[in-house]
Design a protein that fits this description.
Oligomer: heterodimer
Low-confidence stretches of chain B: none
Number of strands of chain A: 2
Mean pLDDT of chain B: 82
Helix content of chain B: 40-55%
InterPro entries (chain A): TMC (IPR038900), TMC_dom (IPR012496)
GO cellular component, one term (chain A): plasma membrane
Shape of chain B: globular
Strand content of chain A: under 5%
Strand content of chain B: under 5%
Low-confidence stretches of chain A: 1-52, 67-83, 127-150, 198-207, 323-339, 769-776
Protein name (chain A): Transmembrane channel-like protein
Number of strands of chain B: 2
Shape of chain A: globular
Strand order of the largest sheet of chain B: 1-2
Structural class of chain A: mainly alpha
Strand order of the largest sheet of chain A: 1-2
Number of helices of chain B: 11
Radius of gyration of chain A: 37 Å
Helix content of chain A: 55-70%
Largest interface: A-B, 83 and 85 residues
Pfam families (chain A): TMC
Domain TMC (chain A): 587-629
């Protein structure tokens, strides 16, 4: 039977306690008895001792445990119930180091700071001193041998000052900042540390020139950060949202802001390398007559189809910067030149490389942010419950409005009650079979509806293409152009309605925990989106690209680009919430529509302001609990896997297997798009021998499977090593926990023995003396 | 120390910048807000009484506001009044760039209602009552409260002495990634 001796001081006389708290000298003198500062250091000390002592200690505590449970148990109960604690015991209890941290004990905090500064100093100096290295953590305590020093605090403070003076400036600042002392105390410390450096600021002591440079760089860096932080986008709006709705909702808007900044960056790259050169030296096109109606902005046809927006506008030749536009001949750029000093800008190559680098940078950024946020939320030792975490960590201090505070309280109450009921009735398996049947029904409904939706879109797309062919034979009218928007409209409707159906279905199911429900719903939505996108890609890349003449298209890439543009706009109008869909669309569209990031930027700006106003106007915080950090991991991984990978796959398929159209675009007259790269490699070999090694490198590394094999092998080995390290850490953690538990038992035993001894002295003839045998 | 002066001295400002997690902008804003709290009172006062601090909009509805004032107050009378430096301490501990250690240290002290250095059953009960609100229908029943407290102690009390001390508290906190983000208060006060 687990018997726990509770050191709850409340049933004991509180008057004595009050007098003790005001009695600082008593506390200090107790500290002087050489009690270790902090249970953490005690633990460290234990770990350092030899195995023999460990074994003995554990055996001793085992013995004590058994003794506890057998004979002394009842006596101890009697002790607690009948007698009071003596003043000595109370004094010892209240001045225990593990409890005195909370009592504004400056001495305790200064000791901690001392230890940390000594460790820092040792780390930086890396002394070879043998005497220091023998038992470093004990030496680091700075425990004085002459412990009846009344001004122990003074000595500790002096020691801390000495330690701080020997640290570097940056470390000193960081250490002082991170110490939980009051600002008045820190000011005093700082004055003591710098008493010999009067008149100089922290960062301007006599330093060698390399740290002068470092200091200058630091200044520049902080200046940049300051500028950036003052320019931060939507700062005021985000603060208002955070104050009203909490950290969870805020994470969604921070996500939108991240996406926007990312799009701006990509737009700059695209714009500088691709759009700008082509805009400065436009290719000649035969002018076509288009009536200007307002609908062009939505359909992307008309005068927009022969503009910088779409693939078809870009020339397939090299621009030479010396020639003037009026000398240009159609289709061949500015003519060939044999002058090697003129700057040539190869548009098809630029197109290829820009798109490639864009995807590469996107991939790197996504993987990096995913790994960072995963690392933040990963915990080595997963303990069983999370009620303690919920109680200690769930209060969001950002929330300041009264209504939101009340809502937060209600949320927390609901969550706590849910957790409690889970713990109570967790093992009940009522109606397992009927639960299974309901789950099966729900899954079949959702999968079936997804399948039918995809099938419907497939048939509708085919029908729309036939209608478009018919329309193209006749007169171009506004109605025909508007029909182009029908397919995006239907797809967006499906995107909007079906998730509602999924919600309904999951409401009737009975899930064990809300997080399972969340993941199931996300999976179903994702499946829906992926199947719709698969059907659309099949249409665009499989049908239209393969046989463009059958569909009556001169330039199928521009057509696909226009379709993507329309989808982006209509998706925004219909389903402003589901940005995952939009993300895929614009990534795929990057190949066919280089200016798409600009459209996406506008869309995100509008989205932010729309969502913000709707939230603030509706003034109703969400009733569902949000776990902010896990949500942001989820968002980023949703961005990465379906949209980015899917887009990469589609783009690679396009580049490698589909024949570009012969009438337009930078890759006309080539068998496949990637041939432009191959052509350039050939040219390089023949013209510039110095760079021919690039070709060789590419041939050896990328096309050779052995290299990739080795890389994968090294990668797997690294993963294996990390898993083993984690395993070891988990074992260590559980061992240390057991050790701490045993230490706690030792402490209990010692305190009750202390009390018993005191009582024996006080009341030697009392009838309740222990049967341990010793009398008087 | 110039706390009631209308402007902060330059070296004082840089000293505060070094010792806290606040930027220069934030310190100046804090000074402005603090002066506003003092404006109706006698200018010679160096500390603002607790009632005035509790009237700040960010703290008004916070159930832990009294504890926050008591924890950060360095006055000898233990009445929760804050000097300007205490106020800066408060903002610094609750700012976005404060370390986890600082936040957990102060969070522990805020949750320690009886100031005895550990979170025992009584402290945990008061904490849960603060979290769940004042109205009757949101409070937990005594049965639920008892079970909740015993579960919390089971999960977080490693040395099994019936209380949660600072190290155990920090250990629990380190398992939650949301802690740092949620424990930020108004930093860029507008």
């Amino acid at each position: 039977m687990a018997y726990s001796v509770d050191f709850n001081l409340r049933p004991i006389m509180e008057l004595e306690l009050e007098s003790l708290r005001g009695d600082d000298t008593a506390q200090d003198s107790m500290k002087g008895t050489g009690l270790e500062s902090g249970s953490r250091e005690t633990l460290e000390m234990e770990v350092l001792t030899t195995e023999g002592r460990d074994r003995l200690a554990s055996q001793m505590s085992d013995v004590r445990e058994r003794a506890d449970e057998r004979s002394e148990e009842s006596i101890q109960t009697n002790l607690l119930v009948r007698k009071r604690w003596s003043t000595t015991t109370l004094r010892v209890l209240s001045s225990m180091p593990s409890r005195s941290i909370g009592q504004q004990s400056r001495l305790e905090i200064i000791s901690q700071c001392n230890i940390r500064s000594t460790q820092l100093r040792r780390y930086h100096r890396q002394t070879q001193d043998v005497s220091l290295s023998s038992r470093p953590s004990i030496r680091g305590y700075g425990i004085e041998a002459d412990s009846e020093d009344v001004c122990e605090e003074e000595t500790k403070r002096q020691e801390l000052v000495n330690n701080l003076q020997s640290l570097s400036a940056g470390d000193r600042v960081r250490l002082l900042r991170a110490t939980p002392l009051s600002l008045a105390e820190k000011t005093k410390l700082r004055k003591l540390v710098f008493s010999d450096k009067v008149g100089q600021s922290l960062l301007s002591s006599q330093v060698p020139c390399c740290s002068l440079l470092k200091r200058a760089l630091c200044h520049i860096w902080f200046g940049c950060l300051f500028i950036l932080s003052s320019l931060q986008l939507w700062q005021v709006a985000l603060k208002r949202l955070g104050g009203r709705f909490g950290t969870g909702v805020l994470s969604y808007f921070l996500f939108i802001r991240t996406l926007l900044l990312f799009n701006v960056f990509l737009f700059l790259i695209n714009g500088l390398f691709l759009v700008l050169p082509q805009a400065i030296y436009p290719p000649l096109h035969t002018p076509s007559s288009h009536r200007v109606t307002g609908l062009e902005l939505f359909t992307g046809t008309g005068y927009l189809s022969n503009s910088l927006m779409f693939y078809g506008y870009y020339t397939n030749s090299t621009i030479n910067t010396s020639c003037r536009p009026d000398e240009a001949t159609a289709g061949t750029g500015c003519g060939t030149t044999s002058d090697p000093h003129m700057m040539a800008y190869n548009i098809p190559l630029a197109y290829c490389f820009t798109i490639g680098i864009t995807f590469f940078i996107t991939g790197i950024v996504l993987v990096y942010s995913m790994s960072k946020s995963f690392g933040r939320s990963f915990r080595v030792f997963k303990s069983q419950g999370n009620m303690a975490i919920k109680v200690f960590c769930s209060w969001d201090f950002k929330v300041s409005k009264k209504m939101s505070v009340r809502m937060q309280s209600e949320n927390i109450t609901t969550q706590l009650k849910e957790l409690l009921s889970e713990v109570k009735g967790g093992e009940e398996e009522k109606g397992r079979l009927s639960g299974m049947a309901v789950h099966l029904l729900a899954w079949s409904i959702s999968l079936g509806s997804t399948f039918f939706c995809a099938l419907g879109i497939h048939c509708f797309a085919k029908y729309m293409h036939l209608r478009r062919l018919e329309d193209a034979e006749g007169e171009v009218s506004v109605l025909h152009e508007a029909r182009l928007l029908a397919l995006p409209g239907v797809v967006s409707c499906g995107n909007l309605l079906l998730p509602g159906l999924f919600n309904l279905v999951s409401w009737m199911e009975n899930f064990n925990s809300p997080i399972v429900r969340l993941y199931v719903s996300i999976f179903r939505n994702l499946l829906l989106k992926v199947s719709i996108l698969g059907v659309l890609c099949y249409h665009w890349l499989g049908k239209i690209a393969a046989e463009p003449e059958q569909h009556g298209l001169q330039c199928w890439e521009s057509f696909v680009g226009q379709e993507l543009y329309r989808f982006l706009l209509v998706d925004f109008i219909f389903t402003a919430l589901y940005t995952v869909f939009g993300e895929f669309i614009w990534k795929l569209g990057l190949l066919f529509t280089p200016l798409l990031p600009a459209v996406q930027i506008l869309k995100l700006l509008l989205l932010f302001h729309m969502k913000k106003s709707s939230l603030l106007v509706n003034c109703q915080a969400s009733r569902k609990p949000w776990r902010a950090s896990q949500m942001s991991t989820l968002f980023i991984s949703l961005l990465c896997f379906p949209s980015f990978l899917g887009a990469i796959v589609s783009v690679t398929y396009t580049i490698l297997t589909i024949k570009p159209s012969s009438g337009c675009g930078p890759f006309r007259n080539l068998p496949f798009m990637f041939h432009s790269g191959k052509q350039w490699a050939q040219e390089l070999k023949s013209t510039n021998h110095k760079l021919a090694w690039l070709n060789w490198v590419h041939h050896c590394l990328v096309e050779n499977p052995l290299f990739l094999f080795l890389l994968a092998g090294v990668f797997l080995m690294v993963i294996y090593i990390h898993t083993q390290v984690l395993d070891g850490q988990r074992k260590t953690i559980s061992l240390l926990q057991k050790q701490i538990e045993n230490e706690g038992k030792d402490k209990k035993f010692l305190i009750t023995s202390l009390q018993a001894i005191h009582e024996k002295r006080q009341y030697p003839l009392s009838p309740s003396s222990r049967p341990q045998g010793s009398e008087v | 120390m110039g706390t009631t002066a209308s402007q902060l001295g330059k070296d004082l400002l840089s000293e505060y910048q070094e010792l806290t997690f606040l930027t220069k902008q934030e310190i100046l804003l804090a000074h402005k807000r603090y002066s506003e709290l003092l404006s109706k009172e006698d200018r010679n006062l160096t500390s603002v009484p607790m009632e005035k601090v509790l009237s700040l909009p960010e703290l008004k509805s916070n159930p832990f506001r009294k504890r926050i004032c008591h924890v950060f107050s360095t006055s000898d009378m233990k009445d929760g009044s804050l000097t300007f430096e205490d106020f800066l301490d408060l903002l610094s501990a609750f700012s976005d760039s404060a370390t986890l250690e600082i936040k957990s240290h102060y969070a522990f002290r805020i949750f320690d209602f009886d100031d005895d250095g550990t979170l025992d059953g009584g402290d945990l009960e008061k904490l849960v009552n603060c979290l769940t609100g004042k109205t009757e229908d949101t409070r937990l029943t005594p049965e639920e409260m008892r079970q909740l407290i015993s579960n919390i102690l089971e999960e977080s009390d490693i040395d099994k002495d019936g209380t949660v001390n600072l190290s155990e508290f920090q250990h629990v906190i380190s398992r939650s990634p949301d802690f740092v983000r949620a424990k930020s208060l108004f930093c860029r006060t507008a």
